[in-house]
Design a protein that fits this description.
heterodimer; A: alpha+beta; Glutaredoxin; elongated; B: alpha/beta; Rossmann fold; Ubiquitin-like (UB roll); 4-stranded parallel beta sheet; globular
Chain lengths: 179, 626
């Protein structure tokens, strides 16, 4: 029963998209936006709707860094890997986040609460070195909404010591001002 | 009146009301730049105070004027038509700003940056500001002034005027004008835009497609983001003009996932243009039928390569393929396609709006008009700017950007993204033209410039770029996915202290092999390493032969030591250490080198007592416990 319900939900999510219409990325984004990640059922729903083999769809999913094939953490720290951050000690920040939280980039903590993700440069370099804190359940409104929704809240410029304290607060279950 | 004339007349009325409001109007910069510096909190605080105090003030949205380092910026438009730019307005200054705004001709003097419109005695014009003095704003003319979500603001400031003119010209005449303008692909491809358009015009078969490559993935480049966030209609107009000139029926704007505000604003611009008859059937009452939509990427740098982009749009992994055939013969869905980047389309709109005389009045003989630049890294004033082509790079980095921070010296410039390479300080003397950059082994590229001061290690920088190229390789060519991987390994080996003299030849050999990759990603991936081998050979040799990192960045070549023992910050330093490597034995601190991850946090808290020393320069400590 639950499986039927899920399948119906996926069917509704992908219903607006058409085969041979350059819709694959849009359909996968719709699934990830609604569900939080692209599950096997999500891949199958997209494949059926776009009349593509599921393996082909999964091949595309695995090609792109921003499609997740497992559920995201409740709160993800997006670590900016860009050159401006790098020049200002960004790699030290990566190492202390991994050390304090006890897991590496592209991983989620055992309890599913925290995650680390490598973010490509989006040109917010005036705040370098920086990380973004994004709560999975946040859907902020207002003119900054798309940024808050996709990126969460920026924290920067960060000293390494700031990053350690941030990671310790997060590990202790404190919200650290994330959205 | 013509269809365009009707639109313009209505838009002019809207703009007049906007620039002469009945009560003070605060236009807040809502952009990625402003967001990263806390603009959302400022906006919320303004709205809270206005409702709490019951003030007669309106708040609206504008784009970024480019002054990222002074964000959150905003401007106040007064009923008398004056407009003053302020920044940084943090939430704690929002009240002061409102006090000044409601005081008639009041000005918040200490945060006023310049006058954008009208005359205010106590504030100079924005053109006199150090960030603006060398700039010529053409593509950026409307940025920070108009509301990017308001099509009337764009039209009143010239949008779609070039389209109206182009629709009165035949296809060949439009293409000739674009060709004569000298404009070439602003992504760094450098290919004459007019010729590319003519390829599509004369291509057999159809329907024909347009693509805008807005997958600006070069780390440190955020020019296209500025255009799409600040003045999206300039891009939409450029593409409609191209559709008229080439006979294209449909267009895709491929925007990277990392730019959510661009996606929203370009989508809104398309919807507004459709509603005004600027897209769809019979555009502006002519026979032109053309429409388009946004495709959102999903985090793949190689999709910025045009054949990768096409593959990504038409339902697949974004893997570049061998060319020919070129997009003009077989692009998206195997049909004739033209691909240009955001700035190129926006430039085309300017050419048609103002004509060749205006366009050629700025720039050099071979490169007319301007180029947008994004500045980041070790520079005092990071941001987005626009200068005439041919401007000295020095005038950009030092003049507009203010140079490296106080007390530092310039070590390197990294223009044009990870595929374009690294220059020494002599790069400051290059004029901003592709022809000037190319002989030095670097590229101007899309116009991102990352400034590196003397705290930068060239091995570390190259490691970053090779890691990036490895991470983003599509995996098709062994030369590329294997070559970038090997280069990364060798660079990491050097930074760990295990470098060998043979690594120099090995890196050159790999760089030569990578040139045989199918697409520009693999071909250009080793550029930074090759530049380093030429321009920073001594520093590489010091790493390999002396096992020393002059900038004290490479982890295998440095260690932290406590010396002397008497800084008051030592206790805090020991407490912050993420691995508890700083041991306190009866007030005597020492670092357990096996635990230390060399993150440097302790040194931030106890700069007097924690020293970074060369690994080999340290005498081996007497056998410690464990």
């Amino acid at each position: 029963m639950e499986e039927t319900g899920r399948r119906e939900r996926y069917r509704q999510i992908v219903a607006p998209f058409k085969a041979d219409h350059a819709d694959l990325l849009a359909a996968l984004h719709a699934v990830q936006d609604e569900v939080g990640w692209v599950s096997r059922e999500g891949v199958e729903a997209v494949a059926r709707q776009l009349e593509l083999p599921a393996a082909f769809v999964f091949g595309a999913v695995s090609f792109y860094a921003e499609f997740r094939t497992s559920p995201p953490a409740e709160l993800t720290v997006h670590w900016c890997s860009g050159p401006a951050c790098r020049l200002k000690g960004g790699d030290n920040i990566r190492r202390v986040l991994e050390t304090v939280l006890g897991f590496g980039m592209e991983s989620v903590s055992a309890d599913g609460r925290l995650g680390l993700h490598v973010q490509q440069c989006d040109g917010s370099c005036e705040s370098a070195p920086l990380v973004w804190l994004q709560r999975q359940d946040a859907h902020p409104e207002g003119p900054y909404g798309p940024l808050s929704h996709h990126r969460g809240r920026v924290v920067g410029p960060l000293l390494v010591a700031d990053a350690i304290e941030l990671a310790r607060r997060l590990a202790a279950g404190q919200d650290a001002g994330a959205q | 009146m013509s269809a365009y004339g009707d639109l313009r007349a209505k838009a002019d009325r809207v703009w007049l009301d906007h620039t002469h409001p009945a009560r003070p109007y605060i236009a807040v910069n809502v952009s990625t730049d402003s967001y990263a510096r806390g603009g959302e909190s400022t906006l919320r605080e303004l709205q809270r105070l206005i409702s709490e105090r019951g003030l007669d003030v309106d708040v609206g949205v504008t784009g970024s004027i480019g002054l990222s380092y002074l964000d959150p910026t905003l401007s106040v438009i007064q009923p008398n038509g004056t407009r003053v730019l302020y920044g940084p307005i943090t939430p704690d200054r929002a009240g002061d700003l409102l006090d000044a705004a409601v005081a008639g001709d009041g000005v918040l003097q200490d945060l006023a940056l310049g006058v954008l419109a009208g005359r205010v005695d106590s504030v100079p014009a924005i053109a006199a500001h150090e960030y603006f003095r060398s700039q010529v704003r053409r593509l950026m003319a409307n940025m920070g002034l108009i509301d990017p979500g308001n099509i009337d603001h764009a039209i009143a400031n010239g949008a779609y005027q070039g389209l109206d003119r182009a629709l009165g010209m035949d296809q060949e005449a439009v293409i000739k004008e674009v060709l004569d303008s000298t404009v070439r692909g602003r992504s760094g491809s450098d290919f004459p835009t007019g010729r590319k358009w003519d390829f599509l015009r004369t291509a057999r078969g159809g329907p024909k497609y347009l693509i805008c490559n807005a997958d600006e993935g070069d780390p440190g480049a955020f020019i296209n983001r500025a255009v799409m966030e600040g003045d999206p209609h300039s891009l939409v107009e450029g593409m409609i003009i191209c559709a008229h000139a080439t006979g294209a029926a449909y267009g895709f704007i491929y925007i990277r996932e990392e730019y959510p505000l661009c996606v929203e604003r370009v989508r809104a611009a398309i919807v507004d243009a459709q509603a005004r008859g600027l897209l769809g059937e019979g555009i502006l009452g002519s026979g032109l039928n053309y429409d388009m939509r946004v495709v959102v990427g999903a985090g793949s740098y190689v999709c910025g390569e045009e054949s990768g982009l096409i593959a990504s749009i038409q339902d697949a992994r974004g893997m570049p393929r061998i060319r020919p055939p070129y997009p003009a013969q077989a692009g998206v869905f195997g049909l004739p396609t033209n691909v240009n980047n955001v700035e190129t389309y926006a430039d085309a709109a300017l050419i048609l709006r103002h004509g060749l005389d205006w366009y050629g009045a700025v720039g050099t003989e071979r490169n007319h008009s301007t180029k947008m630049i994004s500045l980041s890294g070790d520079v005092r004033r990071p941001g987005v700017l626009e200068v005439p082509l041919g401007t000295l790079t020095r005038d950009i980095v030092e003049g507009v950007g203010g140079g490296v921070p106080e007390g530092r010296t310039l070590k390197a410039l990294q223009p044009g993204g990870p595929l374009a390479g690294i220059m020494g300080p002599s790069g400051l003397d290059l004029a901003l033209e592709p022809e000037e950059y190319r002989p030095t082994g670097t590229l101007m590229g899309g116009g991102g410039i990352v400034v590196c001061d003397d705290t930068t290690c060239i091995i570390d920088l190259c490691t970053y770029f090779q890691w990036f190229c490895e991470d983003e390789s599509c995996g098709r060519c062994t030369t590329c996915h294997g070559g970038t991987q090997r280069l990364t390994e060798i660079l990491r080996r050097i930074s760990s202290g295990e470098g060998r003299m043979s690594d120099l030849n090995l890196m050159q050999l790999l760089a030569d092999s990578l040139r045989w990759s199918n697409c520009v990603h693999g071909q250009a991936a080793p550029t930074s390493v090759q530049n380093a081998l030429q321009n920073f050979r001594d520093e590489i040799l010091i790493h390999i032969q002396e096992k020393r990192c002059p900038a004290q960045v490479c982890l295998g070549l440095i260690r932290y030591e406590v010396d002397p023992q008497h800084d008051t910050g030592l206790e805090a330093a020991a407490a912050i250490c993420p691995t508890q490597a700083i041991k306190d034995a009866d007030g005597h601190y020492a670092i357990d080198q096996d635990l230390c991850i060399k993150c440097g946090a302790c040194r931030e808290l106890s700069p007097m007592s924690l020293r970074v020393v060369d690994f080999l320069a340290v005498p081996v400590a007497p056998a410690a416990a464990g």
